[in-house]
Amino acid sequence: MSFNPNSDKIFIWGMPGSGKSTFGRKLAEQLSCTYTDMDDWIVAQAGKSIPQIFREQGEDEFRKLEKEALRSICEKTTGVIATGGGAPCFFDNADVMNDAGLTIFLDTPLLTIYNRLRDREGRPLLDNTNDLYGTLKQTFAQRKNWYCEARIHIKSETTDLQKEIDRFFTKQ
Ligand SMILES: Nc1ncnc2c1ncn2[C@@H]1O[C@H](COP(=O)(O)OP(=O)(O)OP(=O)(O)O)[C@@H](O)[C@H]1O
Ligand SMILES: O=C(O)C1=C[C@@H](O)[C@@H](O)[C@H](O)C1
Ligand SMILES: [Mg+2]
């Protein structure tokens, strides 16, 4: 697949902690294109952290900001975009991304995600649970069908990510 850094977009989807930023940065470096983090974009626009947005405005309002951020990212940027964990699962965001570029779902085992996230804070939907693994399982069950809309699925635990990058992309 050829990739033009001046016109093409690649959206990385996956659960919180699945490795979107890590993989997205690496891919952007390989393809010599820009890297954009949708959560950072929202924070810059709102002038507040994600936990603050959830606390002060609630999840519904966050999802609206996320939808607006996606539209403006589609207009203003190219390159690799790591989305928010829930972004493909609300409104018509999944279709918007599939129309605007290539979508990649990082399918990382929940146990791996659990081990990565158990001592971390700053994720409003996961911070207030005393059963993190159960919450991850429930969230993934609700989101799975959305994530499966991605054009490319990568089993990130069992796959050599570098090989995947080489397999799918050649720079134009
Ligand atoms: N392929 C990998 N192998 C080992 N560790 C990884 C891998 N990918 C990511 N990690 C580690 O897992 C953690 C989460 O990764 P990362 O921040 O990239 O995920 P994310 O999906 O962007 O998370 P967030 O929901 O915070 O946006 C980090 O500590 C990162 O170093
Ligand atoms: O999984 C989610 O719904 C979220 C993931 C984060 O990337 C942020 O977009 C926010 O905390 C919501
Ligand atoms: Mg990230």
Automatic annotation (TrEMBL):
It is found in: Cytoplasm. Substrate binds at D39, R63, G85, R143. Pathway: Metabolic intermediate biosynthesis; chorismate biosynthesis; chorismate from D-erythrose 4-phosphate and phosphoenolpyruvate: step 5/7. Mg(2+) binds at S21. Its cofactor is Mg(2+). It catalyses: shikimate + ATP = 3-phosphoshikimate + ADP + H(+). The keyword Transferase applies. SUPFAM superfamilies: P-loop containing nucleoside triphosphate hydrolases. Its EC number is 2.7.1.71. It comes from the Bacteria. It is an enzyme of class 2 (transferase). Its main location: cytoplasm. Catalyzes the specific phosphorylation of the 3-hydroxyl group of shikimic acid using ATP as a cosubstrate. Belongs to the shikimate kinase family. This is Shikimate kinase. It comes from Fulvivirga sedimenti.
